């Protein structure tokens, strides 16, 4: 399965691609071809979330800079002139799908804006698709005709916030939903069968190791105690596995095809009445429902994942070299403080205690800094995502990837448990939005914008996405982008999806 | 510092001890002597939370059984006849401090009952003390006279639920608060100074490595970026360190003095207006405030800590021997299923996916079972606590301790942020209570019992503790202990503290 997706990466990164297929509807299963949709993009920008120490990651990216082309999501339908405007750091024009063109599936609203100069191009990428999943051939080996009721459709939204180059975000935006589709193929029949999922399946045809004629093993076979596995948890497992395979694919191809850099990934899958919100990184998803805010993700940063990182450094000290200590100190320890006692935290602690300073404590802490300045190994400010296989500590051979996790946290929201009105929305945003916008401010914008549009006006969600992006970007004033309260707006790339939970054209 | 506490363990376990000092009040700092309070107790009961596979832990306990004496908390002031009644599995009489004797500090209510026969003695232990902390001598080396305002008092409550013998719970109930006191000695001045805590302290006198005359290094010294450390987090760190030192002490002394078995520890420290609730194990603390339930702890079990355990097994496969796999399966894999695909979860997943069964998957899963039957290495059902240094997998040399954590999770509750009424309480209970009592049922009992007593009746919190214990124990009927709804009552040891948050005699 991996090899089937792999060919698409090779194609994508090595030469020109096929014309954009545009958004697909459920009755267009053929649109899920593995062919890439746009010309290739090689990484070409300095590290974004990766700090100044990530030199070795930036170096090969520089070599590729010259031939880097600039791409934006195909659903924006940008002309060459539009593409240049979207790439203009000075104007920072907000981009949305054209009002006149084909709308995004599920009446989704979308808007984005490029950063104020922190990287050459917009390193965010986005994807919005309807994906058809054909069931895998049954164990008998005989091809089964796909017919009505046999396949499954899922709606898919993805935001990918790239760093240290745009390659990983670009590749993930093209391929992650295909990995999800592959993982769901095994589940097409199981998810449509209300009985508990089978714990054991026959081996797939042609797999080494399958010898006896395989049979489904029912959930109530010989073991006295067995766990109940829900249908939801199979979908969660499929999404988790897809993230892992996407990351492995980037690892395997990074040398040959320059899939440089890494990206945060925030993904929503709508399947059989439920929204699965999967987040790996520091993007954020919230539901605003009747004015109430329901968090649908949490951020993964050196601060929120401190104990996982420290535990890993403690159990595998070889990953720290002789440069880092897994202990945390409130500031860098000075050589003159040897023998004195300083506050510290280890992997088991949430509080602080004093310890006698020893020589090893003079090493740089694995986790340091606070808020947006928190870093792992003085380099990277997010601890989950895809890619980053080449990321190393500056002037060192120490790889950082072992500390990063590609696994998302997945939250499930059952759309059928609540009667949603047209003003109830799921908002996805990269950290460019949330750095300067609180959840409450976003909810206020939802209320303000949607109340000025008729409930059945299809442009209302795009207008809301634009308002959110504009509210985070601000306007140019006093040599900077500033918000109405004169605070600095976000100089980062900003991308926002608005998904109506009960609006026109949504689920049936 | 460790050696100072160690002598007390030796004394406690090797020979008879000093007479019970009884509850102490803040003006009795001398009562915090390290001398043990009651005659020694050697472990003598079969494993409780440890399953049948924990044979090697039970074996040495058996040898000690003959000379095991039975002890209950000194504050119960039990006569020899009362001690026999408290040890009677048939009658299961509820025990509380006598109404006529000295009351527990803070008007605390307490009640306990022995199990229905699962272990020879009641393996729960409890402690309720007022502890005076004298500041450590200053760095100048000159002894400083303790005077008013220089020391600190904390109130302390501890519940210890033993398993595989009563030794660890007994030792912890005698010594853990002394470890906490030791840890707080450094903080006596710091906690009473409203300015931010110093990040660096001079070395303690006589410590190797302290050469230059030490000076306090203020929080705003040379490093540009430093973390703010709160006073609360110092107390949290002190409690965490105390748990660790208590556990290390048990490890060092387990061979010489038969500190066998392990215990869950649920501890509350009241200091300077705040309640610090520290939990390691499956006991539970809730606040019932104006009818509202505020959870103050969470349980640590193979299910809630699955991912931590699996990650450890994955990173340190030598800890699994050739007997266990870190992967989780919904049931035991059969040899005939080799090559088929079964649902599994690894350390990164919360969902389930199918994998091809290989030979290694036939090993026993590190984590298996559900609910109260969940086990680590088929042996133990709690994943945090003190002791268990000798616990090994049955018919194997594999130690289980590496998978257990002695670190509590500490939650902080600020008593000054809310005007509490006499009916607002903090309830601590071992799992014997919570196995058959929901939080809501406990809150209903709080309301029902306290409403029948005058707000200033000092016996109301003991009556409430007794009602909670009785409600979980039930009455003997149909060859078992049964609740009014005819469901089985708890056959486990049950211990309950009720701490009034705004009642008579509480904090000033």
From TrEMBL, chains A, B:
Listed Pro residues bias regions: 37-46
PANTHER family (UniProt xref): PROTEIN PHOSPHATASE 1J, PROTEIN PHOSPHATASE 2C
Alphabetical list of Pfam families matching this protein: PP2C (PF00481)
GO molecular function ontology, one term from the record: [pyruvate dehydrogenase (acetyl-transferring)]-phosphatase activity
Domain PPM-type phosphatase: 107-501
InterPro entries to which the protein is assigned, alphabetical: PP2C (IPR015655), PPM-type-like_dom_sf (IPR036457), PPM-type_phosphatase-like_dom (IPR001932)
GO cellular component: mitochondrion
Bias kind Low complexity: ranges: 47-60
Chain residue ranges for the region called Disordered: 1-60, 84-107
Protein name as it appears in the record: Protein phosphatase, Mg2+/Mn2+ dependent 1J
């Amino acid at each position: 399965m991996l090899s089937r997706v792999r060919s698409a990466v090779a194609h994508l990164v090595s030469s020109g691609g096929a014309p954009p297929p545009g958004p697909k509807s459920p009755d267009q299963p053929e649109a899920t071809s593995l062919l890439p949709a746009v010309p290739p993009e090689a990484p070409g920008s300095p590290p974004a979330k990766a700090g100044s120490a990530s030199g070795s990651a930036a170096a090969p990216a520089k070599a590729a800079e010259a031939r880097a082309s600039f791409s934006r999501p195909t659903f924006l339908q940008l002309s060459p002139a539009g593409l240049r405007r979207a790439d203009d750091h000075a104007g920072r024009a907000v981009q949305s799908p054209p009002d006149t063109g084909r709308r995004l599936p599920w009446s989704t609203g979308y808007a984005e804006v490029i950063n104020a100069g922190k990287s050459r191009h917009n390193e965010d990428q986005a994807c919005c698709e309807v994906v058809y999943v054909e069931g895998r051939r049954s164990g008998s080996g005989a091809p089964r005709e796909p017919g009505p009721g046999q396949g499954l459709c899922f709606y898919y939204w993805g935001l990918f916030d790239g760093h240290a180059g745009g390659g990983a975000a670009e590749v993930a935006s093209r391929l992650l939903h295909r990995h999800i589709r592959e993982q769901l193929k095994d589940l097409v029949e199981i998810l449509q069968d209300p009985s508990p999922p089978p714990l054991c399946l026959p081996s797939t045809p042609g797999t080494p190791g399958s010898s006896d004629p395989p049979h489904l093993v029912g959930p109530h076979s010989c073991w006295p105690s067995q766990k109940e596995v829900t249908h939801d948890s199979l979908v969660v497992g499929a999404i988790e596995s897809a993230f892992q395979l996407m990351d492995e694919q980037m690892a395997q191809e990074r040398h040959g095809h320059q899939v440089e850099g890494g990206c945060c990934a925030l993904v929503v899958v709508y399947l059989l009445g439920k929204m699965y919100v999967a987040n790996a990184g520091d993007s954020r998803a919230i539901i605003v429902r009747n004015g109430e805010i329901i968090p649908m993700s949490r951020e993964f940063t050196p601060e929120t994942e401190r104990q996982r990182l420290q535990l890993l450094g403690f159990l595998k000290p070889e990953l720290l070299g002789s440069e880092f200590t897994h202990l945390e100190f409130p500031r860098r320890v000075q050589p003159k403080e040897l023998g004195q006692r300083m506050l510290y935290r280890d992997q088991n602690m949430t509080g602080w205690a004093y310890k006698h300073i020893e020589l090893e404590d003079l090493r740089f802490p694995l986790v340091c800094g606070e808020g947006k300045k928190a870093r792992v190994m003085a380099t990277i400010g997010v601890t989950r995502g895809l890619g980053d296989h080449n990321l190393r500590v500056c002037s060192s051979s120490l790889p950082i990837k072992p500390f990063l996790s590609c696994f998302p946290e997945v939250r499930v929201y059952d759309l059928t448990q609540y009667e949603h009105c047209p003003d109830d929305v799921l908002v996805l945003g990269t950290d460019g939005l949330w750095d300067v916008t609180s959840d409450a401010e976003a909810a206020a914008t939802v209320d303000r914008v949607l109340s000025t549009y008729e409930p059945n006006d299809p442009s209302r969600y795009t207008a809301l996405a634009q308002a959110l992006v504009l509210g985070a970007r601000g306007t140019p004033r006093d040599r900077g982008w500033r918000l109405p309260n004169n605070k600095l707006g976000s100089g980062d790339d900003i991308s926002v999806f608005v998904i109506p939970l009960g609006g026109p054209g949504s689920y049936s």
